[in-house]
Amino acid sequence: MDIITGLVWITIIYCVLFFFDTFFKSCAHYPYIKFLHETGFKIKFFHLQWNTTSLNRIFVRWGNSNIRFFNIWFSVGLYATLVLLPISVCLILYAIFQLLCNKSYEEQNIIVEPIIPAGHALAAVKEDVHLVNVGITLLFVIPVAYVNINFEKLSSLNPWKTLRILCAGVWHNLVLSFIGFLLYMIMSNVFATMFYVNNGIYITEVNPNSLLAGSRGLQIGNIVTNINDCVVRDEITWNNCLLNTWYNKPGFCVTTDLVHSVDESIPILELPNGGYDCCGPTKPDWLCFEYADNNDGILELPPHMCLPARKVVETCTSFCDLNSRICPTNYHCIYPLLPNSTTLLKIKVIQKPDVIYIGHPLDVLHATHVSPYIPRHFFNTPKLPDMVMKLLRYVISFSLGLALVNVIPCIYMDGHHIVNLLTQIVFKERLKSRSAITLISVIISLIGTALLIFLCIYSIWSRMLK
């Protein structure tokens, strides 16, 4: 199910829920109204909300125990958040600069993660601020956790104590991302004892509509170890090897005897798609190659030659960089004349003939899903480590991302209240006018809000145009 279909189904579910909610409320249906009141659910247009007071006692008990530890804990959180504040602003400015200047980016993601707001709740309890309730709001597909606390009591606290409460949420997101990172490192070592790692990648899915699918292509369960002369050890090297063939088209080192024995070239012709043809229409599986040896003007092979692509790739044992064009002794560098970003790839698969692919390298990335864990012992698939490691990566990236976004001085974010309080602390002695201090805080928050909204809208718009 693609993203459009998913959003359509979510929209339908929201409309159905909103219709029945409006219908039962208009009829004053008592059991339904009682259910909403007892559970804390609220249904609005593309908006679901749930809150509860059942967790208040737990937070009060935690907050009133180990007071000395929590004093140190939330003080560290205050300083960490103040350090993160300018970093987050610089990152959002850098992200906007990248969006405006880099038109060829592949993907931008803006994600918000739900997390139970234990940070604000515990910090508030420790400072003897009454906790009203905690809850979760679902704005279409974006879940956001929140805490309702006594605002009058919060306003009467010392500014630095208030800051510790406001910074607690960001601090706990940072801690969660750090814990996720530690678990990620531990689990990667644990799975390394049960699976082969750093020995190639395991194909877990192949798009059936791709040219790569089929008996002579990639299949589920294949183990890939090389792309041309680039060694594939894990997901990162798999991606890097494919990207490298995109940026630098590979050349193949062949012998003179091979070329002379199979060359069937005709006068070269330039094609409308930007490629060249020296084979003619009767040889669909042959390619036109160009001689690219660094030979100081001495031609040992014809400038262009028509060769069978599979035979060239299968007999090739070394590759040449088109910048240096250096091959081993008695070998010569040739490269296929293909249009645009199309390239010729030799994908080495264990216990199977090499897969020959002609096309865009990024099509290989999009058509396959891979895993760095190769099954051994009693495991048949790498689903377990893939699921666990992906979950931990999401926890790390989502929690860290939420901390960075939440600390930005944007309306409705913690950063808005943090900056408001910081301006009062900094300018309290310098500016006697309270309205001037408020104006400075509002201007900073408006700028942060505008930057974040612009980044979100521009990113979504750019992705829709792709």
From TrEMBL:
Main EC class the enzyme belongs to: hydrolase
Q: Where in the cell is it found?
A: Endomembrane system
Report the EC number(s), separated by commas if there are several. Answer: 3.4.24.85
Q: Which domain of life is it from?
A: Eukaryota
**Any single biological process term in GO:** regulation of response to endoplasmic reticulum stress
Query: Peptidase M50 domain spans which residues?
Result: 119-444
The membrane-spanning stretches of this chain are 6-24, 70-97, 131-151, 163-187, 391-415, 436-461
Pfam families registered for this protein in UniProt: Peptidase_M50
- Catalytic activity as recorded in UniProt: Cleaves several transcription factors that are type-2 transmembrane proteins within membrane-spanning domains. Known substrates include sterol regulatory element-binding protein (SREBP) -1, SREBP-2 and forms of the transcriptional activator ATF6. SREBP-2 is cleaved at the site 477-DRSRILL-|-CVLTFLCLSFNPLTSLLQWGGA-505. The residues Asn-Pro, 11 residues distal to the site of cleavage in the membrane-spanning domain, are important for cleavage by S2P endopeptidase. Replacement of either of these residues does not prevent cleavage, but there is no cleavage if both of these residues are replaced
- Grouped into one coarse class, the protein's main location is membrane
The protein's topology relative to the membrane is: Multi-pass membrane protein
Which keywords, in A-to-Z order, does the entry hold?
Answer: Membrane, Transmembrane, Transmembrane helix
Into which family does the record put it? Belongs to the peptidase M50A family.
Name of the protein this chain belongs to:
Membrane-bound transcription factor site-2 protease
Q: Which organism is it from?
A: Photinus pyralis
